[in-house]
Amino acid sequence: MSTQSFWDAAGPIIAITEKHPFLVAMVDGTLDMDSFRYYVVQDAMYLRDFADCLRMLGANEGVSTADSDRLKEFATGAEQAEMSLHNSFFVQWGISSDGAEQMPNCLLYTSYLKRIVATRCHAEGLAALLPCFWVYMHVGKCMLKLREELGDSVQRPPQFDAWIDMYGGEGFEKEVKDYIEMVEVACRAADEGTLKEMEKHFIMCCKLEHMFWDQAQHQMQWTL
């Protein structure tokens, strides 16, 4: 079992996600800007927890110095490279994520990640964080392709293009491939039981990725 087998197992979910109405509307310019602002605020809060999870993995007992350092670099990348994009939007909009509350699907996702990273083995933690890297790269590439196909036939806000450029870009792809290789090494060292758990976490987090965009599309709120 390998990272590719995880991807294949989650294939039906990923095939639906790459055509998510929120993502397609971002490319064709029809996405409501309020939904995008909502998404960016929620994603900013998600990224802070995601970076914390990466650092927790880097501090695990038995992790090599090289892997620990690389995990910390991934965390910094999430906080600096990705958050710099979000913060540039906040400046343009005159808003902030400070004081905002994680909405239901965001909290469900971050809580799941933190529980797996804190209570399960290192390899399982790595696998749980993998969809955030890999699915984002995949949908970014799909969105780039659709944007090219649409050409000048549609107009979209510059924030949408900046988002597509980042997650469909070569810089992010390099980071993702490095992380995939780290998980691949963990797969080779894992026993069959651990591999099955890794696959389970990967599939669950692919579902949670989809639900994160559902939440943004509908601007989900707590009912109480």
TrEMBL record:
Residues 11-216 form the Thiaminase-2/PQQC domain. It holds the Pfam family TENA_THI-4. One of its GO terms (cellular component) is cytosol. GO terms for biological process: thiamine metabolic process. Gene3D superfamilies: Heme oxygenase-like (1.20.910.10). PANTHER family: BIFUNCTIONAL TH2 PROTEIN, SI:CH1073-67J19.1-RELATED. This is Thiaminase-2/PQQC domain-containing protein. It comes from Cyclophora tenuis.
